[in-house]
Amino acid sequence: MAGRMTPIEIEKIFRDEAGRALATLIRLVGDFDLAEDALQDAFATALERWPAADPPSNPRAWLVNVGRNKAIDRIRRSIAFRGKQTELAHELLFNATASDEAADMMALDDDMLRLIFICCHPAFSMDVQVALTLRTVCGLSTLQVARAFLTSEDAMAQRLVRAKQKIRLAGIPYEVPDRDALEPRLRGVLAVIYLVFTEGYAATSGEDLMRPSLTREAIRLCRLLDALMPRRGEIKGLLALMLLHDARRAGRETAGGDIVLLEEQDRALWDRCQIAEGLMLVEEALRLPGRPQSYAVQAAIAALHARAPNYKDTDWPQIAGLYEVLLRISPSPVIELNHAAVVSMVDGPARALDLIDALEARGSLKGYELMPAVRADLLRRLGRRDAARDAYFAATSATQLEPLRRLYARRLAELADASRSPA
């Protein structure tokens, strides 16, 4: 039948729905590892059943219900193996079987926010908060998370195991905390929501540049936070930033999945309604009392890109000035790298390369995959072809994202063609 699905289509649905399905399963069974195993069991069942019959109308609800049943089966097998029924097993089994399906579907939209608040509990360091989010919310493998932290897979696996044990042993509640408890977690929650968005906007690895389901989810979660804590400049700023970036989605890749750089994008494809909302939120965020927040300044930068009629007429001096503000209020090596790239549009690539050299000498971004890519672009623009070629090879080795690898291959081919052309 035309409605039946291939394994590749099923895998795409699973990637899109896994985060929210996992969040709901964690609420139902009360255990990270059991929920992850149950979701994998549900996915295996989907691979077996969906190609032979019409797929369900709501794949996420199907994965949750089948995963819940798989978790029950695992609990029962564990009880039978031990020969006794422990209080914990009784509790998990009750939680998994007692919920009403209609109530489950009403709760689905809030489960991801609950999961993020667990990941951002003050008992965890920021590194652990980020690692848990990448693993559970973004669905990255332990190896991919380890690469993001420049550590081994075994070390990261142990870190994640310890975090999950702490959640279980400390009885950290699976809930959005009351208003008084929101404040201490807000910084971490905003950081991980933006992390979810970033993984959807420019994936860490794989064949696809973007995972729109993650960008939509991050925007939805930020809207929920804005409703919970209105008149907060950092929340409105982050929401504006994500909307303005996501508005460019249709122009960022070709039909074949290749990257279209900002200077080459067809701006008629940008979502003007989303841009209008983002611009309004930027103004609201900057008007609120207190000093400008990092996300609001970043959103102001994105707003200048959105307002520009074309790449050449972008207000690069003002963007460079905003990056200098950002460096004062929220200094980081990544912001320095972005600032250097913008300086190249104002003062030329040679000046920007000096900034990159200084940044690299400090070792602040050692292992950061975009560093060689920025260096390569500056060297290419300066006509230093051999050095640019070496930097593009380094950039290719540093990334696990196939669209970026293809972009660097195109740049290398252009450099080769230029070398063969007569002067």
Short note summarizing the structure:
The protein has 423 residues and is mostly helical.
Strand order within the widest beta sheet? 1-2
Shape: globular
Helix content: over 70%
Instruction: Catalogue the unreliable spans.
Output: 84-94, 96-109
Largest sheet, described in full? 2 strands, parallel
Q: Which band does the percent of strand residues land in?
A: under 5%
| Beta strand count | 2
How far the N terminus sits from the C terminus, by CA atoms, comes to 60 Å
Mean pLDDT: 87
Total of helices = 19
Please compute the radius of gyration using only Cα atoms.
Answer: 23 Å
Structural class: mainly alpha
Return the string of H and E elements: HHHHHHHHHEHHHHHHHHHEH
Structural description of this entry:
By secondary structure, the protein is mainly alpha-helical. Helix content is 72%, strand content 1%. It is built from 19 helices and two strands. The protein has helices at residues 7-29, 32-49, 59-82, 87-98, 101-119, 126-137, 142-148, 153-170, 179-201, 212-228, 233-246, 272-287, 294-307, 316-329, 333-346, 349-362, 370-381, 385-398, 402-420; strands at 205-206, 400-401. A two-stranded parallel ribbon has the order 1-2. Helix 1 (7-29) crosses helix 3, helix 1 crosses helix 5 (101-119) and helix 18 packs antiparallel against helix 19. 38% of the residues are buried. Residues 84-94 and 96-109 have low confidence and may be disordered.
